[in-house]
RNA sequence: GCGCCCGUAGCUCAGCGGAUAGAGCAAUUGACUACGGAUCAAUAGGUCGGGGGUUCAAAUCCCUCCGGGCGCACCA
């Protein structure tokens, strides 16, 4: 019978409640989070530790060690607990017996891909918008980061029961697109690129494709019609390219939402009307404004400009309402640090619609990606030809290495990408360390089969080696890591966990053999270890899966 | 000036208010006639940017100062 940290926590909660009851304490409530056990860094402190006695000592007006002793007494009677010690200022250290801890290996193998999944967002409809790069050029390094992180986050939400929609906001309305069209046209007419336009090789390539695809004679058309052709065809081509490169990167969106729809469907007017009805709209300087300062924004925002055109925020208003009407209770948008100024106005909008900011709408701000060469940050410049786009990155290091490098750091941290480093010194990217560990589990399993070791027996009490109990402890943490990554919106936790697991596996491999040496007989210890080996492979595969990184069986 | 993020080992970065702050790379030294050496073991390397505060306990929370990045339009 398996003893998981979750079960242990639940039982500890009962014990704590009992202690509170004996004291006649009714005002103090203790939740499951308060008693969640942590894995001590130091092995001498047992398999699991709780600080609950220290937390409760003060409100109860008691001595933490005394309380800990009392709780420890109860914990000793839990099935599978080998020993309980009270240490330091009042830590309760729990050591499991080998059989109870080791049973997990079998559980994991039997659960397979389901191990690690949770229920945090069961049935919750989540809309996760990310990348959303303008279709005016290929996806740059920054956008690639959001692609990797966003997709991984979506996988994690899915793993904890969320009904996730990956959404790409396709900005096909407004000035940027005009500039793009004018740039294509200029290229076609062999004129210099517009001052505010786009340059680069891809412009001329797209131009050629438009010319090839357009059925009629472009040359005889008036200039404004030519530009319209380049706009319509060019955007489609660019967009198809973006879709394809994202797909090749392992990122597929469920919804590509066209901003134009919001303007054409009347959603924008409806959104403004709704705000007006709620009294949040005013007229000034012949423009129409949203009084966002009523909701904490630092200035009011123009929704209809004095020239009658919709202000930028109008699209956001309509888009948010549209998402809400499509039934998403949680809407997340990932943006780069250069957009962090939007957060306040978008939260003001959320409040103005009567929703709860930071709950119904959440903006995840990720810091910028720098291209580094020989330790020196490179200014990414189109003219200097130092722009790195999605395809460049994948071509240089491959999808797995690229995704892993982008997802293993906190998004709060600026990220340096050194292509030479990632390419030449592959050890600098721990993805290979993790993948190798996974490949090794399969290699071991193949050898085991060849030596006649199978999973016909399982005796967890045999898993007594130090590296085995450590490995089991790490395996047991996986579900919590996934849940925490979902709660905090931090996929990098899964990557770091995978590295830790891989390290513990390698160490175990080094000291515990699954296949017998020479003519030694096959024993139940070998068979049981095969379960542990396979369990580790399963968890490594599950973890890499959450990152969108492959788990090769051979390397 | 205001706002957001960052400052942890030589470098790149983890670190959920807890026990002796960790990993990879780089450095030094070991381990293959043992399931793959893309591995493992060991050594060295830290005023957790500075200063206050809260707490039984602070890298973690609060205040402040100093550095670095980014942003503050009737542009999108």
Strand order of the largest sheet: 6-5-4-10-11
The CATH C-level name of the domain at 430-547 is Mainly Alpha
Please name the CATH architecture of the domain at 430-547. Orthogonal Bundle
The mean pLDDT is 92
- The helicity comes to 40-55%
Silhouette: globular
What does this molecule look like?
The model has no long low-confidence stretch (mean pLDDT 92). This protein starts with a helix and ends in an 8-residue tail after the last helix. Helix 1 (5-22) packs across helix 3, helix 4 crosses helix 17 and helix 6 (175-188) packs across helix 8. The protein is globular, with a radius of gyration of 29 Å. The chain has helices at residues 5-22, 52-60, 64-76, 98-111, 141-159, 175-188, 201-213, 223-248, 259-264, 267-277, 312-325, 342-352, 390-397, 399-407, 419-424, 431-450, 466-488, 492-511, 524-547; strands at 48-50, 81-87, 91-96, 125-129, 163-170, 255-258, 281-284, 287-290, 301-304, 330-336, 361-366, 369-373, 376-378, 415-417. Among the domains are: 5-96, Gyrase A, domain 2, CATH 3.30.1360; 430-547, Isoleucyl-tRNA Synthetase, Domain 1. Strand 4 (125-129), helix 5 (141-159) and strand 5 form a beta-alpha-beta unit. It is 50% helix and 12% strand. It has a 5-stranded parallel β-sheet, with helices on both faces. Strands 1-3-2 form a 3-stranded antiparallel β-sheet. By secondary structure, it is α/β, with parallel strands linked by helices. It is built from 19 helices and 14 strands. It binds one RNA strand of 76 nucleotides through helix 2, helix 6, strand 9, helix 12 and helix 16.
């Amino acid at each position: 019978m398996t003893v998981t940290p979750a079960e242990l926590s639940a039982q500890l909660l009962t014990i704590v409640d009992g202690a509170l009851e004996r004291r006649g304490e009714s005002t103090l409530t203790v939740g499951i989070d308060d008693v969640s056990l942590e894995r001590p860094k130091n092995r001498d402190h047992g398999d699991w530790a709780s600080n609950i006695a220290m937390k409760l000592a003060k409100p109860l007006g008691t001595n933490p060690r005394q309380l800990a002793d009392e709780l420890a007494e109860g914990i000793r009677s839990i099935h599978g607990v080998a020993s309980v010690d009270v240490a330091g200022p009042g830590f309760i250290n729990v050591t499991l017996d080998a059989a109870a801890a080791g049973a997990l290996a079998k559980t994991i193998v039997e659960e397979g891909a389901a191990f690690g999944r949770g229920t945090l967002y069961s049935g919750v409809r989540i809309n996760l918008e990310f990348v959303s790069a303008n279709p005016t050029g290929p996806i740059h390094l920054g956008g690639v980061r959001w692609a990797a992180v966003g997709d991984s986050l979506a996988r994690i939400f899915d793993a904890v029961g969320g009904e996730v929609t990956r959404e790409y906001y396709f900005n096909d309305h407004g000035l940027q697109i005009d500039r793009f069209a004018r740039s294509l046209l200029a290229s076609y007419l062999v004129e210099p690129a517009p001052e505010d336009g786009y340059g680069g090789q891809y412009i001329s390539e797209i131009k050629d494709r438009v010319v090839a695809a357009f059925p009629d004679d472009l040359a005889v058309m008036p200039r404004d019609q030519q530009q319209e052709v380049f706009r319509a065809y060019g955007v489609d081509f660019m967009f198809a390219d973006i879709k394809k490169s994202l797909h090749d990167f392992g990122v597929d969106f469920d919804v590509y939402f066209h901003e134009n729809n919001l303007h054409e469907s009347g959603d924008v007017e409806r959104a403004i009307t709704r705000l007006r009805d709620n009294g949040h709209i005013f007229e000034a300087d012949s423009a129409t404004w949203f009084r966002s300062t009523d909701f904490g924004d630092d200035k009011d925002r123009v929704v209809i400009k004095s020239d009658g055109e919709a202000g930028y925020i109008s699209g956001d208003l309509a888009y948010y309402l549209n998402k809400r009407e499509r039934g998403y209770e949680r809407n997340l948008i990932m943006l780069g640090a250069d957009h962090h100024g939007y957060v306040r106005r978008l939260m003001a909008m959320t409040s103005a619609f009567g929703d709860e900011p930071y709950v119904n709408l959440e903006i995840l701000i990720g810091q910028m990606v720098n291209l580094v060469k020989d330790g020196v940050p490179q200014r990414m410049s189109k003219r200097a030809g130092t722009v790195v786009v999605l395809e460049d990155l994948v071509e240089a290091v491959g999808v797995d290495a690229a995704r892993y490098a982008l997802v293993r750091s906190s998004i709060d941290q600026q990220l340096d990408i050194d292509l030479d480093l990632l390419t030449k010194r592959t050890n600098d990217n721990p993805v290979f360390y993790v993948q190798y560990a996974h490949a090794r589990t399969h290699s071991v399993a193949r050898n085991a089969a060849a030596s006649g070791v199978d999973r016909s027996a399982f005796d967890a009490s045999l898993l007594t080696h130090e590296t085995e109990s450590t490995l089991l402890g790490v395996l047991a943490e996986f579900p919590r890591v996934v849940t925490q990554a979902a709660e905090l919106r931090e996929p990098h936790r899964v990557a770091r966990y995978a590295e830790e697991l891989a390290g513990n596996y390698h160490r175990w491999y080094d000291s515990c053999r699954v296949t017998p040496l020479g003519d030694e007989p096959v024993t139940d210890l070998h068979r049981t270890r095969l379960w542990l080996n396979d369990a580790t492979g399963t968890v490594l595969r599950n973890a890499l899966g959450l990152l969108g990184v492959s788990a090769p069986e051979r390397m």
